Amino acid sequence: MAATHHLVLASASPRRLALLQQAGIEPERLLPVDIDEAPERGEHPRSLAKRLSRQKAEAAFQVLRERDEAEGRILLAADTVVSVGRRIMPKAEVEDDALANLRFLSGRTHRVYTGVCAIGLSGRVRQRLVETRVRFKRLTRDDIRDYIDSGEWRGKAGGYGIQGLAGAFVVRLVGSYTNVVGLPLYEALALVEGEGFDIHGVRRALRETGETA
Ligand SMILES: Cc1cn([C@H]2C[C@H](O)[C@@H](COP(=O)(O)OP(=O)(O)OP(=O)(O)O)O2)c(=O)[nH]c1=O
Q1: How far apart are CA 204 and CA 86, in angstroms?
Q2: 170, 171, 172, 177: CA torsion to nearest 10
Q3: Which residues have C-beta within 8 Å of that of residue 134, sequence separation ≥ 6?
Q4: How far apart are CA 165 and CA 25, in angstroms?
Q5: pLDDT, tens digit (0-9, with 9 covering 90-100), for 100-131
Q6: Rg (CA), the chain
Q7: Is the separation of the CB atoms in 76 and 57 below 8 Å?
Q8: What pTM was estimated for this model as a whole?
Q9: Atom number of ligand 1 nearest to Cα 33
Q10: What is the pLDDT of residues 37-71, one digit of tens each?
Q11: Cα(180) to centroid(ligand 1), Å
Q12: Running DSSP on this structure, what letter comes out for residue 105?
């Protein structure tokens, strides 16, 4: 399989881009897609994360195909879902979502699932589903008030971002940390490498042009 340097990240999430950059990789471009993220009736959180990551990757692949730009490119998409048991914690868009989520997660262990999907040169789809268990301390009223005031919950699965203030809520974490932030790096890189993406070649090229993070 021919090696390629062209990775397209099908995401609008600044966290996903930052994680790739942390791993020394700069995507050739970002291609966010808008899909319906509502769970199906009775859908398990892990199935939801897997399904949505695939839908994002397929929708972006379709766009590249329509523009006749799929050739020589590998697509990467992800979706993160926070849950307690089968209960899916909504992505926090308004303050009330964030409040309800934080109160529910307080003093409990929850799971964070990220589905990762890569579509390569041949149009072949590769997927991984990664799970991390996170236990939060019992949150005080002041913890919750500070967090709501910070606005960091906005647009985040489960209504928190472990990479910010909420890092101090974590008593225990089992599994991949980058998975919680939104892109499990080990698994994501293994997927794109499996499709012929030349990780080391890209890092080398970025070092030579002085663009490395
Ligand atoms: C749990 C958690 C989630 N998040 C973020 C990552 C994702 O951006 C978001 C989960 O929503 P997603 O629907 O997975 O992603 P998105 O809509 O933000 O971006 P796109 O679909 O374009 O890729 O929550 C954190 O940043 N930190 C955390 O600790």
Answers
A1: 44
A2: 20
A3: 109, 110, 111, 112, 162, 170, 172, 173, 174, 180
A4: 26
A5: 999 999 999 999 999 999 999 778 999 999 99
A6: 18
A7: yes
A8: 0.95
A9: 22
A10: 999 999 999 999 999 999 999 999 999 999 998 88
A11: 9
A12: H
Structure tokens belonging to residue 153: 């919950």
Cα separation, 84 vs 77, in Å, equals 24
* 149 labelled catalytic: no
Q: Domains in the chain and their CATH numbers?
A: 7-208 (3.90.950.10)
Is the Cβ–Cβ distance between 22 and 189 less than 8 Å?
no
Q: Structure tokens of 93? A: 């868009």
Residue 142: how many other CB atoms lie within 10 Å: 8
Token digits for 13?
A: 């999430």
Q: pLDDT for 153-208, tens place per residue?
A: 999 999 999 999 999 999 999 999 999 999 999 999 999 999 999 999 999 988 88
Task: Give me the numbers of helices (H) and strands (E) for the chain, helices first please.
Answer: 7, 7
Q: In this predicted complex, what is the ipTM?
A: 0.97
- The tokens describing 182, both together, are 């939104």
11 CB less than 6 Å from ligand 1? yes
15 lines ligand 1 (CB under 6 A): yes
